[in-house]
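Project standup — Tuesday

K.O.: blocked on the structure for the chain from last sprint. Re-posting the sequence here as requested.
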Amino acid sequence: MKRKRRGVSFGTTVMLVLLVITLGGSVFVILRLAGNGSIDLARVAGALQMEKGDQKIENIRIQQDSAAQSGGPGAASQGAAASQPAQPPASAVSSGRDGAENPRAVLTFGGTTAIETEVRRSCYFNDTKKYDFTDMFQPLREVFQADWSCVFLENILSDEYKVNATIVPASAAALMSSAGIKAAFGGFSGIYDKGQAGLASTRQALESQGILTPGLEANGELTVLNGIRFYIGAYTGTISSSVRKSMAKNGDDTAVPAADPATIQRDIQNARAGGAEAVIILIQWGKDGKNVDKTQRQTAQLIAEAGADVIIGSGSRIPQAAEMISVTGTDRRQRQTLCVYSLGTLLSGNRNNAKRLGSYLLHVTFEKGQAGAVLTEMSYTPVYIWRYKQDGKFNYRCVPVNGKAPDGMDSEQMKTMEKAGNAVADVLTGSPLTIR
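H.V.: unblocked you, prediction finished:
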């Protein structure tokens, strides 16, 4: 007689469900340990209300970033109360590098990238009737290798409008992606020239290349790099008041966050409360060709007092000083904030003087120890905008001044490159930065 087949018992079903949940959780943790992620501060705020020991994380949205590693720079303020934030669940944090004693993150920042008319034309090829922007940053590809990297972009990227000194084809995003650059700060004085459509097309062009877009969207995320929680705040102070009014009228007032000190202070406080171990503020400020003014210094002081660890500026299009700003924390202990007023112009067709041809990349290293995330290294690479003529048209390459001169660079061009490098060295005399 055939034996009657038994169904799966209730107990077995429960065990199988638990096994699936456990395996799913393990895969989630492994994915987080393997890469970087972004934490939505709005969700973090709710999770931080949990009682101690509660490891529920459904109120924290962690998104795996695109193929390009994402992250946000910053170094924790030592001794300040702001540097001791409430901690989100451990499962929301990626681990340090394999074999590293302490988690470390290396970040690199480049200056104003302006694909102006002459630069754009140099990238057009008559035989294919197409643009190719990928060569100009290739000499910097190795220098840009980092856990996170960013430049200050001053262009609208779109195929819907006629090109000019500001508007370039969407394919220009390949300029950054081909060099391994992971983010482009897109806020500048002309970013709203085509309204929300120009903003959207620029974001879309960059994101299609795996490039993050700080400055072109509301701030509000923590990003994890090698086990360190960073907050990047990106703010633009060079948009005119009339344009700001137009943006507000169209409901776009937060699309390009304004460089308002009170807003920046509030955002830093929220980020620290949300678990940020380190804070960097990227800011578009100053006037073209002008030195650092009183307003910039006052703003930098306020940002430092709010708890920023690094401030990186752009907007003047010339290299400017880097210094440490000393502030007193709420616990009356001294701490310091690195402030770089302007990295200068990384790419442009303006060749009026050596200051317009030279800029510098900023390299910072953060290490996480028992005292938290700490800025441990600060260095720079001077860069020269090399222009040369080939086959009847000009070509542009951005090259490290302290590296080997590229093939084809003649003695006169080498002298010009030396002058550009000296212009950078002059503004950094006495700064905390060392040449890389």
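K.O.: great, moving the ticket to review. Residues 1-6, 26-35, 42-99 have pLDDT under 50 and may be disordered. The longest strand covers residues 372-390.
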